[in-house]
Amino acid sequence: MTMRAVVYRGPDDLRLETLPVPEIRAGELLVKVAVCGVCPTDLKKIHYGTVPPPRVFGHETSGTIAKVGAGLRGFRVGERVALHHHVPCLRCHYCRHKAFAQCAGYKRTGITAGFEPAGGGYAEYVRVMPFVLPGVVKIPAGNSFIEGAMLEPVNTVLKAVKRLRLLRGDSVLVAGQGPIGLMFTKILSLRGIHVAATDLLESRLKLALEWGARKAFQASSKRLVDEIRASFPCLDAAVIAVPSEAAVTQAVELVRGSGQVLLFAHTRKGEPGAVDFGSVCLEEKDLIGSYSSDFTLQEEVSRLVFSRRLDARKLVTHALPLEQTATAVAIASQPATVSAKADSLKVVVDQTFRGSEAAKSMRISA
User: Fold this and answer.
1) Which range of residues forms the domain containing residue 233?
2) Residue 361: its pLDDT value, please?
């Protein structure tokens, strides 16, 4: 059997090709992909060529079980599932310290559509290997494939929130109100945290208020620090959900003594930056990094998303069929400029479209 897949052949080179449907072994799953989100980490690999081709990217994946490998119990053909491509060993030094993303086992990708495992969600079928099966979540009957695909990005945000020492009533700056920033705003507000949101786009500042921010500020304002301080004189933490060095510098200045600044979007190594290390030391501020997800949070994340306390469907503004994956990547890469799609948030590749539906799928209502 063959299938369609979007193959990465080099920087900014994605091609719709025909590949063999992955052969599964005993104890594995074959999943027919329904929806796969476009993730910023894959965008960087595609644009900058940080990994060698060929690969099939896409790791925010949901679909339907098409085949169950010999000896595997607990799964059956036809079940709708959300996949999780990284699972730690839970035994090594890093796992014992709950630094799961540093675990050598975690860094192995356990889902593939062919070639070097890279998630595979931009293909019609994926092979799910045994070591990541503990991260598979079954999608309830009342929920959608889009919600299943959103579990992984929501997981990364919840993991980061749990790294902060926050109490109900604390105040937190969330810099950047793209899909990730809005998730931070919602999860923090659900925990009784007062959120100050910043962004360059007025449309996103409006959304931030709808998602729970107490107040939203234009990030380009020359008086931004003073404006935030006027409404939030004592910030306990800041979340940097946009790769901006200026935002980090401002956050270190804004948080009170013993406050925390969490870096979430700075995922390219070697970038220069200027931080007031004296402030970090003398005022006992913490500079924290958080990267990727934590499969031990899957149950909590599932309750959050499937109950729609965090309605992930509202973040998805663009859904495109598999053959338009390169367009989906372009829109996600430049949300404010590509084809005048100025307010794009989460972009997904949705293979459930059929016939004329595919032609109408570029933009969907929030």
Assistant:
1) 164-289
2) 53
Classify residue 356: in a domain, yes or no: no
Domains of the chain: total:
2
Within a 13 Å sphere around the CA of 303, how many CA atoms are in the beta-carbon half? Answer: 5
98 and 11: one domain? yes
pTM score > 0.90 for this model? yes
**Same domain flag for 145 and 9:** yes
Residue among 79, 52, 38, 61 nearest 126 (CA): 61
| Domain assignment present for 242 | yes
- Whether 27 and 56 map to the same domain: the answer is yes
Residues 119 and 21 in one domain: yes
**Positions in the chain whose pLDDT score sits under 50:** 338-341, 355-356, 358-360, 365-366
> Does one domain contain both 26 and 109?
yes
Q: Please, what is the angle between helix 325-333 and helix 40-48, to 10°?
A: 100
pLDDT at 300: 97
Q: How far apart are CA 202 and CA 193, in angstroms?
A: 23
Same domain, 147 and 203: no
Residue 363 lies in a domain: no
Residues 129 and 18 in one domain: yes
Residue 360 lies in a domain: no
